[in-house]
Design brief:
heterotrimer; A mainly alpha (237); B mainly alpha (225); C alpha/beta (367); A: 237 residues; B: mainly alpha; 9 helices; 0% strand
């Protein structure tokens, strides 16, 4: 119990709320990089997944991508990003973390986008084509709106994973909320470790909840539900 | 953390190092395997218990999924960090954390697997005089095997990845090499640790797949007429 | 023969929250060793009644006895292991072979391996499966084969009672006829007490020794043998349920061999046209059939008779449709209606046995 009191004290200590090592600063840093990496990954993976799903080909690739992605530990991806980043002249800290996070976010977004478009009922698509809609109109007007909730699910899964893995960025010289945990471990400051863990956990859960709500709103407007479709491609960090 | 840079002239893999450390590599691979096995084993046992409850009392499925879902969402490092002040930098901490990750996927798959058993089969079995317990053990579980096995495979591969993180809280496994490589700006152990984790994950996945095939000869039977 | 009859005594079933009962105050007895068919429109509770006998559904009130024992006295599992149960979708265990499926109840009852194996052998033969099927999995079998395994499985522990819930509804019509015929011959051998639920009145008539016609709420509108029901429907509901082809249905219950046949307008192949004309006038038709050595050669129109030529030398038309002694009068009627000369030619094996006319047939319906 004493320990938790100490943790509470840490949170109420105003010093921890100021400066570049303060809670707001680190949290913002964490959110900014996570959001950036997720958006870049989405920008790449959504169009790819949607186009491939629309064409109906590449089902094997979609499944394999996720299985392969799952087998590679996030820790390894971040760690491996470091030497490559250095060799590319990008240094430590931000770039290796960013690169690793984008790589990790790609599989779930790609596969979910692919599956989402593929799962749009073939009857709906054929009806649309039969009415004379062009391929582009079918894709944008029919498949995309129906697939949107599941695509969003993929982005959610990726976002949570990114927020979680960004904690490990502290190991390659980056900041973010992981800093509290890693620094705390190295100086054996359990309070700091615990507090950092609380912050990161809260952020991850918040991200999950916000996206879930967004999904529900989209689904309520008509669309495929995440839970009705085959295994969600998820992994923790 | 002191700023250091990987020397651009440093080769990606120094084979000499690997050769010198073969023993260590073997030990940590085994340790990694054991950590994974224990976590998935215990996780499966707990998940089975939770699933039986959820199947019997449907209303509990929501809350169970919610709790295991939260455990799953919490970043692994954070989860270990929560446990450290109470269970120390020990294997127990690592295992509690790892087990927590397996629960969501295993419970979901066990329940889905049992639910996927055809109602006609269930009705025929009950009508012939199967008791609840024997029905579960002899009919429902075997038929749910493919879905449950899929969950086990995903859980196993995931845990193999997470065990690398336990090196940060002082546990063994291939993560030690990754951490070592990071700390000493040394590529070789970094790459060795990473590659071997992937290999271990794939091997365990394929083994489980093979086991599943062995245990379910009926799923390979052709379709008639 | 099974000695176990089934008695329902003021049995009712109310589902929670329903405004009307699924079954209301039903009292009936299903005789031992016979097939009782429960038939009626959807919602009449026939399946509910069936399922109350093996306690898959528990009655809300009333008493059910099987073989003289109140079913509530036994633990449900024990009760069900003593009653065979066949359902429409069969429900074979996909992860067990045919032999293992059939051996289910014996295993549950703890039979030893040899006894079980022997019994499975018996049953596989009894239901007409080949022994190669033994180690096959259900997915490898056709619908008809699966249902045969289902029946074998239900009979494995030799229960006195067999409950069948629309067992042949899910197979195609040709297979269904085979399965029905096989059930009849099986029953002739085993004489179990069978309760057979169906929505198909023809199936009920074909298979049932007793037919119970049920209305919504399990109301028993008529309960009698198929002939009685067809001959004398008890009320408007039954009449309407049976539809307008009652007469034809009654004909399908009578075999040709049970009816005295006529010679019909036949003449020997050695005969001349005069004799042929005589026969035709006597029978009141304008054609004649030619018989040589008890074999039917064919028939000719009166206009085709040639003076001076023996009947056997004429080009006779063959009878295209023939009926066997095992066929029903309904099938004979079909032959009559589709022939040029309005008779059904009957063969017993290869031997020409006689003919049936429309008159002879309706004599069996109108006393």
């Amino acid at each position: 119990m004493d320990f938790l009191v100490d943790v509470l004290a840490w949170f109420t200590d105003s010093a921890n709320w100021q400066g570049s090592a303060g809670i707001p600063s680190r949290t913002l840093e964490h959110i900014r990089l996570s959001a950036f990496a997720t958006m870049v990954a989405a920008g790449l993976a959504v169009p790819l997944g949607v186009l491939l799903g629309h064409s109906g080909r590449g089902g094997l690739i979609a499944v394999s991508v996720v299985n392969i992605g799952r087998a590679i530990p996030s820790f390894a991806v971040i760690a491996l990003a470091l030497p490559f980043s250095i060799r590319a002249g990008l240094g430590i800290g931000f770039w290796p973390t960013f690169l690793a996070l984008v790589l990790l976010a790609l599989p779930p977004i790609f596969t979910n986008s692919f599956t989402a478009v593929r799962s749009v009922g073939i009857d709906v698509v054929e009806a649309a084509r039969g009415m004379g809609m062009r391929e582009r109109e079918v894709l944008l007007g029919i498949e995309l709106p129906l697939a949107a909730p599941l695509i969003l699910t993929g982005i959610r899964v990726a976002a949570v994973q990114v927020v979680a893995t960004a904690t490990l960025g502290a190991l390659v010289g980056w900041g973010g909320l992981g800093r509290y945990i890693i620094d705390g471990f190295s100086v054996q400051d359990n309070v700091r470790v615990f507090a950092g863990a609380l912050l990161v956990a809260a952020l991850a859960i918040l991200t999950d909840v916000l996206f879930s709500v967004a999904e529900r709103i989209l689904a309520a407007r008509g669309g495929l539900h995440g839970h009705r479709l085959p295994a969600r491609m998820e992994r923790p960090a | 953390m002191p700023q250091r840079a990987f020397l651009a002239t440093e080769p990606l893999i120094r084979w000499g190092w690997i050769w010198d450390h073969l023993d260590e590599i073997r030990i940590q691979t085994v340790e990694h395997f054991i950590l994974t096995g224990i976590a998935v084993g215990i996780g499966f046992a707990i998940a089975m218990g939770l699933s039986i409850v959820a199947l019997r009392f449907r209303r509990t499925y929501g809350p169970v999924t919610w709790v295991t879902g939260v455990l799953y969402t919490i970043p692994s490092l954070a989860l270990f960090a929560f446990l450290v002040p109470y269970t120390g930098l020990s294997r127990l901490t690592a295992e509690i954390g790892l087990v927590s990750y397996t629960l969501l996927i295993l419970v979901r798959n066990i329940v889905a697997g049992i639910d996927s058993v055809s109602p006609a089969v269930r009705e025929a079995a009950v009508g012939m005089g199967y008791s609840r317990t024997r029905l579960f053990l002899e009919i429902e579980l075997p038929l749910a095997l493919p879905v449950i096995a899929a969950g086990l495979r995903i859980a196993t591969v995931t845990v193999v990845g997470l065990v690398t993180v336990t090196s940060i809280i002082g546990q063994g496994g291939l993560g030690l090499f990754i951490l070592d490589g990071l700390r000493r700006d040394f590529y070789t152990p970094l790459i060795v640790g990473s590659v071997l984790s992937v290999v271990l994950a794939v091997v365990m996945d394929l083994t489980l797949a093979g086991l599943e095939r062995l245990l379910s000869p009926w799923s390979r039977a052709g379709v008639a007429r | 023969m099974s000695e176990a009859s089934i008695r329902l005594d003021h049995v009712s079933k109310w589902y929670p929250g329903a405004s009307t009962p699924a079954v209301e105050d039903l009292t009936m007895e299903m005789p031992a060793g016979q097939v009782t068919a429960l038939v009626g429109p959807s919602g009449c509770g026939k399946t509910t009644i069936l399922k109350m006998i093996n306690r898959i559904i528990e009655p809300t009130s009333g008493r059910i006895e099987v073989g003289g024992r109140d079913i509530q006295e036994l633990h449900p599992h024990a009760l069900r292991r003593g009653i065979g149960y066949v359902i429409q979708q069969v429900g074979l265990f996909p992860h067990r072979t045919v032999a293992e499926n059939i051996a289910t109840v014996p295993k549950l009852l703890g039979w030893d391996r040899r006894r079980t194996r022997k019994r499975v052998d018996e049953l596989v033969e009894m239901v007409g499966l080949e022994s190669e099927m033994y180690d096959r999995y259900p997915a490898e079998l056709s619908g008809g084969q699966q249902q045969r395994v289902g029946v074998a499985r239900a009979l494995a522990a030799d229960p006195p009672v067999l409950l069948m819930d629309e067992p042949f509804a899910a197979v195609d019509p040709i297979v269904r006829v085979h399965l029905q015929d096989e059930l009849r011959s099986l029953q002739a051998q085993l004489q179990k007490t069978i309760v057979f639920v169906t929505h198909d009145i023809d199936e009920a008539i074909k298979l049932g020794d007793q037919v119970a016609i049920l209305d919504v709420g399990g109301a028993l509108r008529q309960y009698a043998s198929p002939e009685e029901v067809l001959r004398g429907p008890a009320n408007a509901f039954v009449k309407e349920f049976l539809g307008k082809e009652r007469g034809l249905r009654r004909l399908s219950l009578i075999a040709v061999r049970d009816v005295p046949l006529e010679n019909g307008p036949t003449v020997s192949s050695d005969a001349g046209p005069a004799e042929a004309r005589e026969v035709m006038e006597r029978e009141g038709v304008n054609w004649v059939a030619i018989v040589r050595n008890e074999e039917l050669q064919g028939w000719v129109w009166e206009s085709e008779l040639e003076p001076g030529r023996k009947m056997g030398d004429l080009a006779a038309r063959p009878f295209l449709v023939r009926v066997t002694a095992d066929n029903t009068l309904r099938q004979a009627l079909d032959a009559i209606v589709t022939s040029h000369n309005q008779v059904a030619v009957v063969y017993d094996g290869d031997r020409y046995a006689g003919m049936l006319t429309l008159n002879r047939i309706s004599e069996n319906l109108v006393p």
